[in-house]
Every structure is written in C-alpha cells, then in structure tokens.
Amino acid sequence: MNAFCILFSDTFNSDNLGELTAKRNIASMPFGGRYRLVDFMLSNLVNSFVPNVGVIAKDKYSSLADHLSSGKDWGLNRKNGGIKILTPYITGNNIVYRNKFEALCNAKDYIGHMLQEYCIIADANIICNIDLDRVFDMHIENDADMTVIYTDTKIGTDDTEIFCNDEGKIIDALYHSESSENQGNVIMKVYILKKSLLNNIIDKGATFGWNDINKDFIAQNLNNYKIIGYKHNGYNKIIRSLKDFYQANMDLLKSEVRKELFETERKIFTQIKDSVPTFYGDKCHMKNSLIADGCKIDGYVENSIIFRDVKIEAGSWVKNSVIMKGCVVKSGAAANFVVADKNSVITENQVLVGSSTLPFVIKKGTAV
C-alpha cells in the first residue's frame, strides 16, 4: 500500500481507565490473555503492507516501547522505515502537547521524510480486524480527499455521528458530548488522506488552534472537500473506559467474536513469549474461560480471561473476571467481576465482588 501511518497511542481525552493506566498509556493495555490493545490496529496495518508506522506517544510510554521494541514481531524491524515511536519534545516549562493537532505538529519532521503519497491516521485503542486494502481501494476509486471509517453502534461520549448520501459522501456530522442508547453511524477515528492534505490540515490546525479532527476539520469542511465514509460491519470495540475494557475482554468468550478477530487470513500479531504449558490440577474446574500459557490452575474458574503465569490455588474461585499476568489468587479467595492488574495478589479467604458495569480493580503489584 502506498501509505504510511500515524498511530496515536493516547486518546487525548479524559482518562476513564483509572489505575489501569496510571503507569501505562492506553495502547499498551494488556488484553485478551496475551495481547496489548495496540496489537490490533498495528496488525491491520501490517496485513495491508503499510511499511512505515509512526506511533505518537504523549507520556507513560515505557511499557509501550518495551512491547513494540524493534517491531520484529510485526515484521517492521527495518534499516529504513518500519516502526518508530514519536516521543514529545519537552519545552522549558515541561508542557507536552495537549491534543492531536499539537502532536501532529510535533511529528511534522517524521511526516516530511515519508515517501508514500498517502497517510492513514488511526487510534491504537480500537479492537477490530479490518481489511484496510479495501478501504484504500475505495478511497482511490472515489477520488476522495479523505475517507473515514465508521460503524453502526450505540453513541458514546465524544462520539461523532455522520450522515452519508447514496454515494457515500458525508453530508453532515454531529458531535455528541454525552452517551446515548441511540444507534448511529459513529466515526471510528481511522482516516485515509493524502500526505499533502495532512500537512495542510496540520498547518491550519496550528493557526486556528484546532483540537479535534472530527469537530474542527471534518464537520467544518464537508462542502470544501470530498469526505466519504466506509462502513465497517464487523466486530469492533473502542476502549475508552473501564467498562469498555471489561466488556471487550468478556466478548472474547463468544466464539463468533474470536472467530472474526483471530480465525481469518489477517492475523493479529503480538510480542512472542516462550512459556511452558498451563498446569491444571486434579481438582480444578474450568468453564467458558480463556487461559494463557504458564499458569497453574488448582481452583475454580468460570467466564474469565486468565493471562500468562497466573496461579489460582486450590479452594479459590474466579468468576466473570480478568486476571492479568503474574497474579496469584490464594486459597479460599473469591473474585467475581474483578480486574486484577499485573503481579497483584488476592490473599487468603478474601472475597472481592464488583459488577459488569463497574468491576473491582486491583492496582498493579498490590496485595488485597
């Protein structure tokens, strides 16, 4: 594909993931037993042979840098191009960029060195498996100035709903400051446009103090540019809150979701870890759960996502929960609707209960 990508590892909106993003950005959030959120969009790009990916990081990016490393696991470890983390330029008063336009201004040197004619702009907190080649082909066939990927879903806070005519051209856009139970065609924050137009947008954004691509460019320029929409009909989840994160993990327990995300020709890649197989004790009980490698399961596990190297001792039970790498659930402990961050411990006979809309969160590396 004759395109490079600018991939945002931060949402630049209010952080609704609490302790889970206290020491990491959203892109490096562990997910689904063995993945990070960034793996999905990065794999979509690699599957469409996008050769250069600039990952814009605002702060708390050490975990992201460790996960991506040289980009080898995605085939992006190259002498020229490949993957590059674009860190902020810290000024004398230590102010980093506050929105995406300031971040794009910081990336202008990187963009200027790209030889590809087109650019894909995307957020890294989107879980989906999408054929970007089809989107790019439609962009070229329609001679569009910009193509926006959208999906029919419930409207959330900060979503932009769009309205298209019969030819797919966006004719109106509506920003929502609050969530709603109504369905709408919502922008997924994945865009395709020419590099020359991107540079023009960055300059105008810097001049007029723009904050958001949807509100400040798309909604204001529907009559000045040909902006078309591409509807993604498959599974997708944008992670912006603890509720989103928990529900997306639980969605993986549905066979149809796993099949769409992982059982296609477009593979989802992640950092390779060599782990021993999971050990299941004689008295363990498993039901409708995903268990990663390297675990030792002696207790009861139901409707849960269990990451690598987790120990669930005999006499304990875990239900409707997400237990991340290196956690220990001690004998007699019980966890229901719990999200346990890495290397945390649920101590003996402790009972923790949350809900599907507000799971109980255990901070990374702590004992409860």
What do you see in this structure?
- The structure is a single chain.
- Helix 3 packs across helix 6.
- The chain is elongated, with a radius of gyration of 21 Å.
- Strand 2 and strand 3 form a beta hairpin.
- Helix content is 21%, strand content 29%.
- The strands form 7 sheets. Strands 5-4-1-6-11-8-12 form a 7-stranded mixed sheet, with helices on both faces. A 5-stranded parallel sheet has the order 14-17-20-23-26, with no helix packed on it.
- It starts with a strand and ends in a 6-residue tail after the last strand.
- The protein has 2 domains: 260 residues, Alpha-Beta Complex (Spore Coat Polysaccharide Biosynthesis Protein SpsA, Chain A), CATH 3.90.550.10; 84 residues, 3 Solenoid (UDP N-Acetylglucosamine Acyltransferase, domain 1), CATH 2.160.10.10.
- The chain has 368 residues and is of the alpha/beta class.
In short:
By secondary structure, the chain is of the alpha/beta class. It has 9 helices and 28 strands.
Helical content band: 10-25%
Largest sheet: 7 strands, mixed
CATH fold title of the largest domain: Spore Coat Polysaccharide Biosynthesis Protein SpsA, Chain A
Helical element count?
9
Q: Let me know the average pLDDT.
A: 92
Under the CATH scheme, the architecture of the largest domain is: Alpha-Beta Complex
* Integer tally of domains: 2
Tally of DSSP β-strands:
28
Distance between the ends: 49 Å
Main-sheet strand order equals 5-4-1-6-11-8-12
Shape: elongated
**CATH superfamily of the largest domain, please?**
Spore Coat Polysaccharide Biosynthesis Protein SpsA, Chain A
CATH class of the largest domain: Alpha Beta
